[in-house]
Design goal:
By secondary structure, the chain is of the alpha/beta class. It has nine helices and 14 strands.
Length: 265
């Protein structure tokens, strides 16, 4: 009977310095040896899942952009792209309401880095993506994207943007100390819809699926699978809905979870 294990990236596979515990590397290899399928399931756009350290773990596939990009064995199985009309509408709204944006696609991301002076994450993205992070200003071509994210700054008017886009997009707001980040996701899509679509494609019963996550954009994934697992370093909210709470990332949390379910010995 085929089983699939889905892994969030940040806070689950690696920490904020991209350190992956050796026990996690070992566990993913053991899962593969057992014949189980392993997938990254991330809110990141596919273009921002490119670290050799991460991809060398040998995942069978990737669900990216909150379910709007699915690939397996290097082949794209599903792709949901935003229309150019919607992208241009969103760019105008975000600029008018002082919300710096990153457009997230399967090959490239677009942003104007100068607009993110207070956000260190953009510098991390720039180092990670290199030439695949392209300026919005002066681009002048079609933006091939699945979703986008923006900062809610002290002088931003997010409610005005929300009102104009609520018929077309869903919103995931991530709290922060200085500002919030909001992910704009095509209406009715999520990590959960991506998981269900993949299961349909592969003929796998959802009850034979497992997912590990730690934060707000993992909630739907944890609820969608047969066995939802919260990392010990995860938020209170995700721990409350998980079937099982494992140890923190650096205390062999991934290994402990897979042992708990008898997937590795």
């Amino acid at each position: 009977m085929q089983k699939i294990i889905f892994f969030d990236i940040d806070g689950t596979i690696w920490d904020n310095r991209m350190n992956i515990p050796e026990s996690t590397v070992w566990t993913i290899q053991k899962l593969k040896e057992k014949g189980y399928k392993t997938f990254i399931c991330s809110g990141r756009g596919r273009a921002n899942i490119r670290s050799p350290k991460l991809l060398s773990l040998g995942f069978d596939g990737i669900i990216a952009a909150c379910g709007n990009h699915i690939e397996m064995d290097g082949k794209v199985l599903y792709q949901n792209l935003l229309s150019q009309e919607l992208v241009q509408k969103a760019l105008g709204l975000l600029e008018a309401n002082r919300m710096p944006v990153i457009l997230e696609g399967p090959v490239y991301h677009w942003t104007d880095e100068d607009a993110f002076a207070d956000d260190p994450f953009v510098e991390i993205i720039r180092k990670e993506m290199g030439e695949y992070l392209v300026p919005i200003t002066g681009y002048g071509k079609d933006y091939v994207i699945n979703k986008f994210s923006a900062d809610i700054m002290p002088d931003s008017n997010f409610e005005a943007v929300r009102k104009e886009l609520e018929d077309e997009m869903d919103f995931l707001v991530h709290p922060g100390d200085k500002f919030q980040v909001v992910e704009f996701i095509p209406k009715g899509t999520s990590k959960a819809t991506g998981i269900h679509k993949l299961c349909e494609m592969l003929g796998v019963d959802v009850k034979d699926t497992y997912a590990l996550g730690d934060s707000v954009n993992d909630l739907d994934m944890i609820e969608a699978v047969g066995h939802g697992i919260a990392m010990g370093n995860g938020t209170k909210q995700i721990k409350e809905i998980a079937e099982y709470v494992t140890a923190p990332l650096h205390e062999d949390g991934v290994k402990q979870a897979m042992e708990h379910y008898g997937l590795i010995l």
